[in-house]
Amino acid sequence: MASCTDRQLGRRHLEQLERYERYWWNEDDEDDYHMAMSRPFSALIFTLLSQNTSSANTRRAYRGLRTAFDVTPAALLAADEATIAAAIRPGGLHHVKAGRIKELAAFVLDEYDGDLGWTYDLPRETVRRRLLAMPGIGPKTADVLLSHIHGQREAFVVDTHMFRIAFRLGLVEHGTSYARVQRCLTAFFPWDVIPSGQRDRVVQLFWFLARHTCSARNPRCPECPLADICDQRLE
């Protein structure tokens, strides 16, 4: 099994990732995402809503929530849990997520008086430790916020699609921890040859490849631009 560092994306691979631009979100979806990510608390809520559902359903759930409420700790703590659940129903697991939203809102109010501005000011690892201490916040959710602040090079986000492609490429073994998958995928990108303003975009294109070509069922290996460096490509 390959180590984290003995292979990387090449320049040719980076060029071929451009074909996944066609999967990029539309303008309304982009606006929803940037609105949610513009404040630390709403970014956490948006990412919490993304758990165990699709990107499209995440956006539907977030739109429902922000239409019904101000997405602030005070407003969501004061809101009726059943009403929150109804607002986020398109995202699935709405009763469970409504409870988590209430718990998170209460925690942020109790511990930080509703202010998460420190996420921009404190060292990244300090912020990560504090985020992971919050109810309902796991490594992926924490890294979504951290990557928005610091970039994917410093806080690579690992979801189901990233786990899968890391294993198939031979970067990690089954059962590998989130932290190791994150390290191996971070090492897989030749950051120094990617313009700094394009790094997060390139990671997103790679995610589209993982989702649409390296799919869980019936991966389309013959069309994959990474087939030449993949351990599990299907002929």
Can you tell me about this structure?
This protein has helices at residues 11-16, 27-37, 40-49, 55-68, 73-78, 81-87, 94-112, 124-132, 139-150, 160-168, 178-188, 199-212. 54% of the residues lie in helices and 0% in strands. It is an all-alpha fold and 235 residues long.
- Give the CA-CA distance, first to last residue: 20 Å
Q: Spell the H/E element sequence.
A: HHHHHHHHHHHH
Described by its quaternary structure, the protein is single chain
Shape category: globular
How many alpha or pi helices? 12
In which range does the helix fraction lie? Answer: 40-55%
| Number of strand segments | 0
Structural class: mainly alpha
Strand content: under 5%
Poorly predicted ranges: none
**How much is the radius of gyration in Å?**
19 Å
The description of the largest β-sheet is: none
- Mean pLDDT metric: 94
Summarize the structure.
This protein is an all-alpha fold and 235 residues long.
Features:
235 residues
Map the helices and strands:
Elements lengths: L10 H6 L10 H11 L2 H10 L5 H14 L4 H6 L2 H7 L6 H19 L11 H9 L6 H12 L9 H9 L9 H11 L10 H14 L23
